[in-house]
Amino acid sequence: MKASGIILAGGKNTRIKTEKAFIQLNGKTTLIQNTLELFKKIFPEIIIVSNNPEAYLKFDVKAVEDLIKNKGPLGGIFTGLCFSTSEINFIVACDMPFLNLDLIKYILQKPNDYDVVIPQNNNQAETLFARYSKKALPVILSHLIEDELKIQDVLSKLKVLKIGSQELKRFDPEHLSFFNINTQEDLKKAKDIYSKHR
Fold first, then answer.
1. pLDDT score, position 131
2. Does the pLDDT value for residue 11 go beyond 70?
3. What are the backbone angles phi and psi of residue 8, rounded to the nearest 5°?
4. How confident is the model at residue 40, as a pLDDT?
């Protein structure tokens, strides 16, 4: 199945005070490099959505700026879907260091007649580790216009397939795919996890 990979790198980074995509866990490669390396194994097209697309031009992938400014992750999802040439798209945040390749492939293999295929981890929908169809664009746009930016509210109006915790455990027993770095404390924890799983 043809699909595109979309990486959202447009957050304000207010809590961690650094551009999260360029954090290093091992002193060598950055989070964005790790994600790109993994995505290149699956996706013929990769798009990075950022407030600063020039910073990503060196990676030789499509780097774009939000089409509608200051709309948070929902605006990033909208922009990525607009620029994508694929009907099916897998979207992640740039600050997730432990993405599971097999889980992504599994989600991509789900039937195409859903607008969104999304992991449900402990009753929480993982909106930034999910498969989105371009069919979701009209609903997303209507929410952006109304400044209703909660992704959960958008999902309630779409055809959604949820992947439950038991299903997720087959691929990612510790649910590390959904770990993201927002604070210095998160970063310390991520480095600890990285050193244990090397």
1. 98
2. no
3. -90, 115
4. 97
Q: Is the pLDDT of residue 88 over 80?
A: yes
Give 115-157 pLDDT, tens digit per residue. Answer: 999 999 888 999 999 999 999 999 999 999 999 999 999 999 9
CATH number at residue 45: 3.90.550.10
Tell me the residue length of the chain: 198
Q: How far apart are CA 27 and CA 24, in angstroms?
A: 5
Q: What is the tally of structural domains in the chain?
A: 1
Q: SS3 for 12?
A: coil
Cα 117 to Cα 47, 96, 108, 122, 182, distances in angstroms? 19, 18, 8, 16, 24
**Residue 71 belongs to domain spanning:** 3-197
Distance CA 88, CA 73 (A): 18
Angle between helical axes of 137-145 and 72-83 (0-180°, round to 10): 140
Judge whether 85 and 4 are in contact, CB under 8 Å.
yes
From residue 18, how far is each of 78, 144, 154, 197 by CA, in Å?
24, 27, 30, 25
